[in-house]
Amino acid sequence: MRFKISLEKEPKHTDVVCCVGWNNTEEVYSCGDDHVLKRWNLVTNETVKVADLPQELYPTDLHWFPRAQVVGKKQGLDLLLITSADGKFHLINRNGRIEKSVDAHKGAVLTGRWSFDGAGLLTAGEDGQVKIWSRSGMLRSTIIQSDTPIYSAAWGPDSNQVLHTLGKNLVIKHLAPNSKPNRWKAHDGLILKVAWNPSNNLIVSGGEDCRYKVWDTYGRQLFNSIAHDYPITALSWSPGGDLFAVGSFNTLRLCDRVGWSYSLEKPNTGSIFNIAWSSDGTQVAGACGNGHVIFAHIIERRLEWKNYEASMTSRKSISVRDVSNEAREQLEFPDRVIKLALGYNHLVVVTPSQCHVYSTKNWNTPGIFNLREGSVSMPETLNLASISISNDTIAVRDQLDSKTVHLFEVGSARSLVDLPPLHHWVGVVEVTLNQAGSALERQIAVVDRNRDLYLALVRGSLHKKLRKLAPMIQSLCWNTDTNILATVQDTNLTVWYYPMVLYADSRLLKKTAHIKDSRHFGKSPTVMSFVGNHLRVRRMDGSLVNSVISPYPTVLHGYTSASRWDDALRMCRFVRDHTLWACLAAMAVYGRELETAEEAYAAIDEVDKVFYLQNVKVNRLRRYSHKIPIRAAQLAEMALLSGNVSEAENLLLQNGFVALELATKHKTHVDTVLLYRKTFLESFEKTETNEKFLQFMNEVELDPEKINEKVEQEYERERENG
Predict the structure, then answer these.
(1) Which domains does the chain have, with CATH numbers?
(2) Phi, psi (5° rounding) for residue 493?
C-alpha cells in the first residue's frame, strides 16, 4: 500500500498554503498567506477562487463542520471554521462569505476544531489558552490557562475531553468539573501537532525532535518513529482509524494505526503544514510551503484469503491472482475503488456509487447494486472494530452510548430484524462475531476500555449474559471455519479452542486454551487472520509472521457439531492430549452427553466431576432405593454443573419437579420436599434453621410410607410419558 502523488506543475497559490480541508460534498478548500480561499474539484480537475479574504487575515487552521451533523441539515450548517494569526476565528459559508468573526485570543489562534457532535468548537493559541465555544461562536469556558503557547489541540472521542500540547508534554483535560488532567512528557523537542482518533482511541503526536509517536489515552507509548531529517509539521488520522498520514519538509508518509510505515514519498513541496483526509479514507490533501496543494490517493492495497490475492493496481482497477494455478483476472471499474474485502469465496468492491460482489468461481458476472446515497463515507466514530457481521447477524456499537451493542438478525427478504441489544457496564471498543456454526451458536466477543474480553450468546436462554474470558487483550480474531478464538493477551498469543466453555464448565477455561509466548512476535502484535490452523500475525514493524496450531481441535469441533461423539472419543484416546480432553469434556457437558463427559473428565483427573456425573446417571436418593432415570432430571443436573441455575429450574418446572416454593405455589408435594430436606440434614447431623421450613415442619405431617407411595405414582406417570 502506498500513496500516489498528484501535484500541479505550477502552484495555484502565490504564497504559503497554511491549511486545507474537505467539505461535505468531497471538494477541497485551501487558503494561505495570499489571502485567497480556493476550491478544488478532483472529479473535473477544476480549481476555483471562492473568495478573497481580508488582507489582515493570515489563516493558521481550517476545519469543516462535521459531515455526520450536516446530513439532512445542510442549510446553515455547512460552515467552515478558519483561525487566524490576528487572534480571531471566522465562520465562513461554502461561498466564502464570512458569517461571523470572533476575537478569541491574544496573539495568533494556532488551531481550531469542531467537536465530533457539532455542538461546539475549541480554539487554542499563543496566549497559552484553550477555549470552548458554542456553535454560534459564544464563549462557553476557558479550560486551559498557561504561560506556554499551545500549538495543537484535539477533541476526545466523546467530545468530553480535550488533548493539547504544552511544550514537550501532552495533556488530556477532562471537561467534567474537579477532574484531574492526565499529563506526560511525550517528546524531546517542542510538540507541533497532535491528532486523536475517535474510532481506535489512539493519539499520534509529532514535533521538533523530528519524530512521530503513537500513544494510548493513559500516556503509554505504543510506537516511536526513527528521527526524520526535519520536524514533523502535519499529522492526520484517516476517518476509519486504520491509517494516518505524516507530513514534513518534502516528506509525506503513510502509516498503519500502530505506527509502522507503509510508504514514504518525497514530493517537492517544501514543508507540509496541514493534512486532511477525504471522508471515504482513500485520499489526502496537503497544504505546502511552496504554494502547492498536494493530493495523494492510496493504491496497491493488497488482500489475501486462502489461495487468492487481490491487489489494487490503480484507482479504478484490481488484479486478482490464484496462487495455486497462477490464474489472473483484471477487474476494471467506472469509478475509483473506495473499499474492498476478500473472504469466504467472495470479493466485495465498493465505489462511490456502486457495490460489486464477485464470486471466486466466476469473475465475469458480479452482482452489482447502486448505493442510494450516491456517495460512500467512513464516519470517524465507525470502523471495523465497532461493527461485525456474520451470515445471520449484524452487531454494531452504539455511536452515542459506547456501552450498548445493537444486534440485528439478517432476514431472508433483505430485511433486518432487531434483536435485544447487549448492554455492558464499561464502554466497548471492539465487537466481533464468530463465523462458524448455526444461528443458535452465534457468539459475540466484546473488548471494553479496560481491554477485558467478554463473551455472550446472541440468541437462546443465555443471551445478554456477558461472561469474562480474559483480561489485557490487545488483539483478537475468530477462526473462519470453527468457533476457535485467537487473542494477543499481555505477552502471550492465546488460542481459546472452545470459548463456549464459559457456558459449559468455566473451571475448565485455562485447560482448554493453548498459550504461546508472543515475544518473538515483537511488541504489540496484531492477529490479522485465522484460517484453518494457520494464524497470521502482524509485528509492529509491519512484517507478517505465520504461526500454526494443532489441527485436532478443528477436527474435534467437526465431530461434536455432527454429534459424532464416539469418533470424538476415539480421536482423543489416540492423541492423548489433556487440552483436547478438556475441550471434549466441556463440549459434552454443553451437549448434555453424560457418557462422553464422564470419560473426558476422567482423562484430565477431574475426579469430583466424574463422581458427580455418575451420581447424575444413577441418582439414588439417600435412604431410599428409588431410581430416577428421567432425562429431564439428568439435564437439570447437567445444567447445574454448567452453573445455569435458571435453566435447571425451568427444566424441572416443565417436567413437574418442585421445591418448597414451587410445591407451595402449586399446592403439591410439600410433605415430600420437607421429608427429603429433613433426611438430608440428618445425614450431615445438621439442624434446620430456615424459618419457612420450620413453619411448614410444624404444620405438615410427614408420613414416609404415604410420601414414598405418592413418589412412586409420580415415577410411574413419568415413565408412561416417556
Answers:
(1) 2-66+77-299 (2.130.10.10), 301-370 (2.40.10), 387-534 (no CATH), 623-721 (no CATH)
(2) -95, 110
- Kindly give the pairing relationship between strand 243-248 and strand 251-256: antiparallel
Residue 521 CB-half CA count within 13 A: 26
Q: How confident is the model at residue 599 (pLDDT cuts 50, 70, 90)?
A: very high
Q: Is 445 exposed, middle or buried (0-12, 13-18, 19+ CB in 10 A)?
A: buried
Contact 125, 104 (CB under 8 A): yes
- In this structure, are residues 656 and 620 in contact, taking their beta carbons and an 8 Å threshold? no
Residue 594's contacts (CB-CB under 8 Å, 6 or more residues apart) are 588, 613, 616, 617, 634, 638
Predicted confidence (pLDDT) per residue in 340-399, tens digit = 999 888 999 999 888 999 999 989 889 998 886 555 555 555 677 888 998 889 999 987
Helix 578-590 and helix 594-603, axial crossing angle in degrees, nearest 10: 150
Return the C-alpha cell found at 493.
498469543
Q: How many CA atoms lie within 13 A of 149 on its CB side?
A: 14
- Any idea what DSSP says for residue 73? -
Measure CA 189 to chain center. 34
CA distance 289 to 368: 44
Q: Could you tell me the pTM of the whole model?
A: 0.77
Helix, coil or strand: residue 674: helix
Beta carbons of 34 and 52 less than 8 angstroms apart: no
Q: Which amino acid is at 297?
A: H
Distances (CA, A) of 566 to 479, 504, 574: 25, 20, 12
Q: Determine what percent of the chain is predicted with pLDDT higher than 90.
A: 51
Strand partners, 142: 131
Strand duo 317-322 + 308-314: pairing: antiparallel
Cα separation, 516 vs 576, in Å, equals 20
Strands in 513-517's sheet, in edge-to-edge order, are 473-478, 485-489, 492-496, 513-517
